[in-house]
Amino acid sequence: MHSASGERGERVSFRHLVLVVAVALGVAACGTQPENPPAPSGPQANVGPLHLPLPPGATYTAHSPDGLLDGCIAEGTVVCEARILDLRTADPAAPINPPSTKRPFGWYTGTDTPTCITPASPPGNAAEATGSKLLDAGFAPIGPKKAEYARWQVTCENSAQNNQVRMWWLPTSRILIVQYGSFPGWDAKLDTLLAGATFS
User: Fold this and answer.
1) Which of 27, 50, 73, 174 could cross-link to 87 by cystine, CB 3.0-4.6 Å?
2) Count of domains for the chain
């Protein structure tokens, strides 16, 4: 037969044990590091602070040997559907035209004449552009950010290469995205990809 004092001692000991376990679990929980977010399941273009998901099988070329495909997104047989450039890394000695809706060829940062890049006329095999007409301008999302947005109708020396070009420009991040040979199916796909973009 246990004495009353013995029973009180056992109850105290049990309460003490529960308290110790609770504290230990609390310390363990506080020391647990949060899990890292899951890595993207598909290809991704990482350009400066921008992380853009790409369609399955697509690739991004940051630098190419001759520079023609720098920044290009390629998919299937199309070697440059769009271009993503971090203008913070541009050669400071090279002349550059900042992207703007207020000048002809406002998506083009060179000081010469752009060429008419399309799925059928890749960089290096495209005719020179002869003119551009601004069709739409405003703002459009890139992930959580709002970019300056524009669409141009472009005319070319080879009229078979006439096409539309779309542009997104983040002046603070200095990220430029240009879509060549715009058409509704690719427009919708790129808009979806841009909506899923993140920044670090």
Assistant:
1) 174
2) 1
- What is the residue range of 165's domain? 44-199
CB 115 within 8 A of CB 126: yes
Convert the pLDDT of each residue in 24-65 to its tens digit. Answer: 334 344 444 444 444 456 799 999 999 999 999 999 999 999
Does residue 6 form part of some domain?
no
> Distance from CA of residue 160 to its chain's centroid?
31
> Where are the strands (E) in the chain, listed by range?
44-47, 50-53, 59-61, 72-75, 78-86, 129-142, 145-156, 163-170, 175-179, 198-199
* Phi–psi pair at 161, nearest 5 degrees: -100, 5
In a domain, 27, yes or no: no
- Note whether 119 and 81 are within 8 A (CB): yes
SS3 state of residue 177? strand
Cα distances (angstroms) measured from residue 21 to each of 11, 33, 178: 15, 20, 59
Cβ contacts of residue 90 below 8 Å, gap of 6+?
A: 96, 109
- The pTM of this model reads 0.79
Radius of gyration of the chain (CA): 28
Q: Look at residues 61, 68, 43 and name the one whose alpha carbon lies nearest to residue 53.
A: 43
In a domain, 28, yes or no: no
